[in-house]
Amino acid sequence: MTIAKSTSTPITQEKAKWIFQKMHEIRQFEDKVHEIFSKGVLPGFVHLYAGEEAVAVGICAHLDDKDYITSTHRGHGHCIAKGCDLNGMMSEIYGKATGLCNGKGGSMHIADVEKGMLGANGIVGGGFPLAVGAGLTAKLKKSGAVAVCFFGDGANNHGTFHEGINLAAIWKLPVVFVAENNGYAEATPFEYASSCKNIADRAQAYNIPGEVVDGKDVVAVYEAAERAVARARNGEGPTLIECKTYRNYGHFEGDAQTYKSAEEKQKHLQENDAIAKFRHYILSNQLISEQELLNIEQQVTKAVEEAVHFAEKSPFPSAEDLLKDVYVSY
Amino acid sequence: MTIAKSTSTPITQEKAKWIFQKMHEIRQFEDKVHEIFSKGVLPGFVHLYAGEEAVAVGICAHLDDKDYITSTHRGHGHCIAKGCDLNGMMSEIYGKATGLCNGKGGSMHIADVEKGMLGANGIVGGGFPLAVGAGLTAKLKKSGAVAVCFFGDGANNHGTFHEGINLAAIWKLPVVFVAENNGYAEATPFEYASSCKNIADRAQAYNIPGEVVDGKDVVAVYEAAERAVARARNGEGPTLIECKTYRNYGHFEGDAQTYKSAEEKQKHLQENDAIAKFRHYILSNQLISEQELLNIEQQVTKAVEEAVHFAEKSPFPSAEDLLKDVYVSY
Amino acid sequence: MARKISFSGAVNEAMKLAMRKDQNVILLGEDVAGGANVDHLQDDEAWGGVMGVTKGLVQEFGRERVLDTPIAEAGYIGAAVTAAATGLRPIAELMFNDFIGSCLDEVMNQAAKLRYMFGGKAKVPVTIRTMHGAGFRAAAQHSQSLYALFTHIPGLKVVVPSTPADAKGLLLTSIFDDDPVIFFEDKTLYNLKGEVEEGFYTIPFGKADIKREGSDLTIVAIGKQVHTALKAADILKTRGVETEVIDPRTLSPLDEETILSSVSKTGRLIVIDEANPRCSAAADISALVADKGFDYLDGPIKLITAPHCPVPFSPALEDLYLPTPEKVLKAAAEIIGDEAIVTA
Amino acid sequence: MARKISFSGAVNEAMKLAMRKDQNVILLGEDVAGGANVDHLQDDEAWGGVMGVTKGLVQEFGRERVLDTPIAEAGYIGAAVTAAATGLRPIAELMFNDFIGSCLDEVMNQAAKLRYMFGGKAKVPVTIRTMHGAGFRAAAQHSQSLYALFTHIPGLKVVVPSTPADAKGLLLTSIFDDDPVIFFEDKTLYNLKGEVEEGFYTIPFGKADIKREGSDLTIVAIGKQVHTALKAADILKTRGVETEVIDPRTLSPLDEETILSSVSKTGRLIVIDEANPRCSAAADISALVADKGFDYLDGPIKLITAPHCPVPFSPALEDLYLPTPEKVLKAAAEIIGDEAIVTA
Ligand SMILES: Cc1ncc(C[n+]2csc(CCOP(=O)(O)OP(=O)(O)O)c2C)c(N)n1
Ligand SMILES: Cc1ncc(C[n+]2csc(CCOP(=O)(O)OP(=O)(O)O)c2C)c(N)n1
Ligand SMILES: [Mg+2]
Ligand SMILES: [Mg+2]
What we know:
The complex is a heterotetramer, with 2 copies of chain A (330 residues) and 2 copies of chain C (344 residues). Chain A is α/β, with parallel strands linked by helices.
């Protein structure tokens, strides 16, 4: 199995703008959360997506609101790529009443069902069956929708990986399984925990296509996603895409990352940054002017700051919210 | 992937006798249980192993008491092949105090830890992690023991398949995974429920050897087991062996088997019987005389009848047994 | 019009009616149709579930809506959760409630919590039907009654019917309820026959049914144990004790009012629950009354449950494991303080 | 000699002592060592668990006995069960008790039932350590207290320590006990410091600890809530109420005697349990007393538990979710019938 690199450029200017902006939103949002967290303001566990932007954005570039995604504990990037509101997201992370989930979910359960974002998930491997269910609805209702399941290299060894992909395969459901192989599950290297060389190699066990993609190359991800989403929409069943990537921060905020080597960090954070790479791609293909890119970057900076402001000035939920929405009726 | 057929004959006369006797014990034991069950004497769910004898016996021919096996709801054959006492087994199936488990386990939980038989299991897929645990003990204690995990084609889609094999692979445990692909999980065909063509194909997902064997050919099973057990004992890790087989009776006693075609039944029960095949093999290789085979058959018949007699005359457990052995101490 | 049909027939009928009424109702589970993709198999020969409870559904609704699944409970129960959240109204069959061990996460952490975690912006109208109960000689892994585990978990509704008529009405309510419901079917009740109205009807959740009225003693009994209670009540009557038998029908929500008002009348409470005793539904009902009904009580609250041990295989032991009318009489004698109730 | 060490330090020390004492004791779980196969990583830089509780163990005992696992709870918890049945004495870490959804079968149907189903011919000396508890802003899937589920299941022992000293002694008992034990560690207690004896000692199961003596009111409190009880007791004393605080320490087995004898003295009972209320350990203890201690009771049994809802993320809501001394005062006022207790 070889790593698929981008070959052609099917990306329009408009798409390129969208991709660039979304990647920036994710990066700046996460950098900001990191900064705020270090001040001790934010409650709970926070897992940042910075470094992996090309995956969520390259995939979601092919989806619209009727399509579904299931996410992970590291879900901010998926949310943003799927079009969730930054204000609502930041508020949620603060535990405020104006959050996407009224402050009840937090970073690990952030969701926006209207946007087809079926939730971050505190349970590793939790997303596989959930993506299958969304795919089942799409198939039975003939809605043409696709369900994407984002999951980590750690999740790849959980039983739900096996059950979920097998189900999607035998029922030929419109599901795309996207492995975000960032090399680690917490402090445990992929190579230690997984008996396979590539996660995509496991596709053979389900008679579905499996593809390894450079997850720092958003164009490559975009192209692989195009093939997989088309296959899904055509009723041909699921695909497994493995994106080799890296998380720029620790497993969660507070992780000293002793398991990462200095060279490795240098390589990923400095030399092989997905956003820098795409910026270079845009400029060398003269898709968007440098000035316009700068404008986008600045708009994003403003939007993220606005989100923090919005979150900070928002109220906490009130006492009667505690018992609300446990049930529709009881 | 091709089906491995027996090529040479490493089977000694002594081994052949043992194999022939064990296969007969299983067949006659199960035929007898079938007969008694139809009279309404036996309690609960009973799943018969008749038809699949070559698998349990071909594998267990390489094991001794220090080795472990984990079994399934269809566990009588594994028990017999692993050397469990027929009287104790039959009594257990009757729910009698003299049963292997004092009547508390029954057909679905029959076990004999002293013989390394770690229990039939009412939970499909339950055996994978259990075999891994026995393999872990063997490895850490350097006992040289091997753990064999018998499982069905239905179990092959359960999450524990994936978790168990991956664990055994990364830890290079002395475990042999033996799929008994009898074509059905209850009334559901293997081909419908599984996205793989062969269960053994899934071995690639764990970087371990996978082999398909004719599960009606005990010599072929014996040879494949030899390779896998040697590999395990050498510390090279697990192997996945898939035995294509067939169950002669229904899923459980009482199943009308409408999902099986007449031709299929004819083929398996008449033309492709594992015992008849091995009998022919023995005779054509002049390993054992026909007279001696007849003697064995008759001895087995007597032993099975004795087992029924033993079970019938045995007492039921008494009231104080109800609360015994929930804990070692409480 | 009412006719006598079996408990399993009533369950089957409810599913049929629900699937006729709403295209979004689908059924999935292991062998719920049976024989998927077997060429020669006529749909009417298909199993329809391991106990035949779903028989005939695939004939009427086809294999698109009656889906056989692999043995992958986490996979298909989890799938049912989001299928529900995205617009379907699935009935997922967990063959035996004992198999919850393979898919508790999907029920406890996903189905039960989605709505709350999402701030009310999702609903999960899934019904999980599952078999429970001892007495079938099915041993420790196929005989449990695990409704306490589910009742403990907020976000789930828990239904345990005792009669064919209740089973039908409550299952229809379950299917059209917008929250996740776990619907328990006692395998030893399937052949029980009872009067069941034809056509579509529902029974509200959180409304206990007073299966027998009485003034001296309240028995709250769960599922099949309602019948143990009724038998005991018959005997108690001959010994001068008028027993009120309350069937809560749903454990979550629980009809606290009916239970409390009965105890306010009788002053005495026995709970019969064939599950294991610790942290059980029986203990839960006792705790309710020991708080809110304490002032009504004339004596201790007695629980008749299984002992704290797994379900034994041997018929000789399993019969000792289960509640019996005799055990109820003993408890009644104790709280009433009249030994003669047992021996009379 | 006793020194002040933290709860997590006490847990760590117990494991160290156990592993020194017996070669068969091994530890396995996700990142219990951390950084497996990372060349440049020194063992002293390894995580030692997500909260650092197992830090240093891999240094002393090596990676053969301190095994990092993939995220495969069914796989490695199940493996621990038979590793135990075949001669090892594993400590398996289930990082958060909320993840039991991924491996309930291995605990409920295998570990708990093997011995019974096999007629006593096996033993399963496995200890499953797991984190629980709300207050960490970890939201619905990482904050539950699920000990009721395990207490319901016969064959398991359930330990919920509240202090460093208890944690150490009870963990050592757990590891060397021949039955499967689920050992709960409240993540919000890890930094709590307390006097802990050096060296090896054990604390017997089924023996409650009277954390404070009193004659007017009995509070049974579970895990961290022992501290809520003690705080409430301090306040109650200033209002003339002498409170006895009982820490059961093990829920299964439960020390019925100590609880009943306390209530026989005080006549009043409050149970504090931060888990959800239905079919809870709190309800279980109430039911015990409503039966065997009924005659001692002067008033209703009050339960202070979480409400019937998932754990909310927002700190504002989570603080309302948990028991507080104020809630205890209110309940005490109610059963004692003296409003002044709350407001004084
Ligand atoms: C079922 C389950 N087991 C364990 C955990 C604890 N946990 C949270 S994230 C994580 C690592 C996940 O690794 P991976 O899937 O590679 O995702 P990444 O964090 O690298 O994005 C673990 C073990 C969990 N949340 N759920
Ligand atoms: C976890 C679980 N799910 C479902 C069942 C019900 N069940 C018992 S046997 C069986 C079929 C098993 O098929 P297979 O693995 O092929 O074994 P076979 O019966 O063919 O030997 C099923 C679904 C179970 N016992 N456990
Ligand atoms: Mg990872
Ligand atoms: Mg099969």
